[in-house]
Records
---
Amino acid sequence: MRRSRREPAVLVVSRVRPARWASSGRSERTTCRKTDNEQLRPTPAQQRELERVGWRGRTLDHAALEQRITAWQRCRVALARSRQDAELKDIRAAFPDSAALHRHVVHDVLARVDKT
């Protein structure tokens, strides 16, 4: 069964140890790069899990951004990433469904919101 849409490829870059030009007499060092394109083919269960993590990440991103905008419009207070992170600890304790996201994913989402 062929898929109708093209899946994104993962680029793997590995470096080879620099070599010297022995035959030409040059002492220049060169580095060779080897790339391999690999396609990820998740199972249907893995695909559903990836979509769920992506959906929860987007929801968290939108909520964090909305919280920052609202705090600035109402009180002229800029919320810091550390403050939102502290609030997430309480949210994760109160709602076990939101605790399903790995902690690193949550930190990455808040870091991207902070960067924007």
Note: The chain has three helices and four strands.
---
Amino acid sequence: MTSNELTIHYKISLLECAKKYNVSAACRIFRISRTRYYQILGQFLKYGICGLLPKPKIPNMPNKIRGDTEKQILDFVNEYPTYGPARIANELRVSTRGKISYSSVGIWCVLKRNGLNRKKDRLYRSYLSTGSAVTLERIEKLERPEIHIETSRSGQLISQDSFKLGYIKGIGQIYTQAAIDCNCSLAFAKLYSSKTANTSVDLIRERVIPFYRAYGLKPERILTDNGKEYTTHRQTGIGKHRYERYLSGLSIKHTLTRVRSPETNGYIERFHRTLLDEFFLIAVRKKIYR
């Protein structure tokens, strides 16, 4: 017999004793007060057998984050909804000079109590609080690449890709063209309202080439996917695509990834996620862009 069954058996015996004799006799036999008896009787009449089960004990957590401190944490989360528990803990420790210093587990408990332990819930709450007119499409998780890129010098390999960040009311779709040096992780990015060969060339011409020239370097190879902004899918158009002609004019080798294999270019794919979390999702919440 379990402890719950023993508790129910004890209380039923008490009620039957009071019915057979009287309340005073039952309380004397079971050594309880009349107040306690009527509490048990009330629970039985209201909930039946379930009312006789012992109430679950809520543990007293002396280290629980409370009051103003929890509010400061939630305010910070509202400002930076894309940060996870570990980063929130680190950022708060630095910004408050140690006044708010908790582990990532403690921060997660605060998020869990307030229904914010998932990033999409934090984003939803943050956007509601500012009345933002931005709608974001679902960002699918990218498979973690298994291929490790090895380079020996800066400019040896640059990954480039385009990415649809989202939609801003009154402006339309927002795209980014981004490129990252696979040797030193230096990244370049620009925002556009379209995704074409012109925007692909513009990033290289306006950001990448001037930077490397300033340091006496030259990009050697650029890796992209098979998007129409980087190459043509027509046999008769090989070598005539504007982006490919531009790279050829600079003596930069152009390499394409395998079809439907974004993990081949995982370096830039992961940077898109960083750009989304560190910039776009926060920037569009703080300001209305026209």
Note: Confidence is low (pLDDT under 50) at residues 137-146.
